[in-house]
Amino acid sequence: MMQQILKNKKLLSSLLSILIVLSVIGCATKAPISKQQKGVASTNARETKNPGPLDAYVYRPDPHYSYKLVKTEEADNFTIYYINLTSQSWRSPEEVDRPIWTHWLTIVVPKKVKYSSALLIISGGRISDEPPTSSSPLLRKVAKDVQTVVAEIRQIPNEPLVFANDNDRKRTEDGIIAYNWDKYLKTGDPEWLTRMPMTKAVVRAMDTVQEFCASKEGGKVKVNEFVVAGASKRGWTTWTTTIVDKRVVACVPMVIDLLNLVPSFKHHYAVYGGWAPAINDYVEMNIMDWLVTPEFAAMLKIVDPYSYLNRLTMPKFLINSAGDEFFLPDSWKFYLKDLPAPTYIRYVPNTGHGLKPEVVDSVSAFYKAIVMKKPLPQYSWEFPDDCTIVVKTKDKPSKVTLWEATNPEARDFRLNVLGKAYQAKDLTEQEKGVYIGKVSPPEKGWKAYLIEMTFPGPDNTSFTFTTPVRIVPDIEPYKYEPPAELPKGFLSK
Questions:
Q1: Domains and CATH numbers, the chain
Q2: Which helix (H) or strand (E) covers residue 435, if one does?
Q3: Exposed, middle or buried: residue 222 (CB in 10 Å: 0-12, 13-18, 19+)?
Q4: ∠ CA(377), CA(383), CA(387), 5° rounding?
Q5: I need a surface site. Which of 136, 138, 313, 453 has the fewest CB within 10 A?
Q6: Mean pLDDT of residues grouped by 10 in the chain (493 residues)?
Q7: Taking a C-beta distance cutoff of 8 angstroms, is the pair 1, 277 a contact?
Q8: Per the omega criterion (within 30 degrees of 0), is the bond before 342 cis?
């Protein structure tokens, strides 16, 4: 099981590397042509009556922000720029071995730019002094097809990191985040939260895309707004970037199905009777013991997207796995109804945390619709009883599918536990715009089901959206109980 989890975590180290093999064909490389340049930090804070620590950190000027063009590649339809970006200084050298955060920022600029929007992909990966050897085919495809600038920022977060008094452990991914949650819960210093520098780095990437593209060497291209996408930890950062920056006009957070985190994780425990191996980094740091403390509530006011619902009025496309190792497939019930419209979702059957390559098409179609200001499909859903989903559509779908999976032993639909258990059944229209999916209750155990809809999109693309996942019977086999003695932090010492 752990091998599968580690495999999927590696797949998500870069959003695009889970989807497509990186390659570049038919490009001519130019020598570096730029010196290190001080960047001009933007002041594009999203208007709010209650700015908080996240806003303050992201928009505080940092003299370390700079960038340098290192490599350029020319192709028939686009130019690819590889930029070394220094986004900030985070914490001190006495606290962490690499306080200066650096990233590789890839910018693909089509020869003919038709729109002033840009797609920004947030990716992971280890710190490297060498530029990427290639750009993603997705970046080039979207740049060519939509005729916009497309960019990817890597090394979100910077990793590995070694913290003082941590036995020289090289921490990555959730290991970094869990360690810094512990620091915040004990000290109350919000700048320990890794979401702070992760978000600031993406905002600096948007600044760099705008400034560089507007320059002579960047082609004098205007970029006014962004659609931001990322997966897992980068999906969470997609949310927080959208929250703080008004240039983000739409977002695509992927496999980060945990908004309203406390009830979501109580449900997690009550379903599994413990914590899934995927969140071992947090268990190891005793983070789960803090769930019902005032310190944890204070932290979530800063980092949980659910705390910023009034800022999330732009189009949102949430792509999740129906077999995720981290999150339960019905985590949506703790937040989805509270998200402002328009919100679209897709739960992908028979996938784990790494999703499937075909989600690329969904992202591309959604982005194209936003850029071209094309209307998105209109549909609604309801559960009239435990075993029925009714979907009503204003736009005619090209295909509607009912997916269902049964686990006779446990309320557990993780891919690495149950395998590819979801089975598909085509649905037909019952009356105009109405599709009904019915399942029989399981003789033993639990059943998960959802309806998937495919709609025609702009320029021969297609949208794939779904209803949420329903679990029947909706019974938690265990009960969450907080520790008898709660930990003491900065609010309860």
A1: 2-377 (3.40.50.1820), 380-472 (2.70.50.70)
A2: strand 434-438
A3: exposed
A4: 125
A5: 313
A6: 43 40 39 63 83 96 96 92 98 98 97 97 95 82 92 98 97 98 99 99 98 96 98 98 98 98 98 97 98 99 98 98 97 98 98 88 94 96 98 98 99 97 98 98 98 95 97 98 97 86
A7: yes
A8: yes
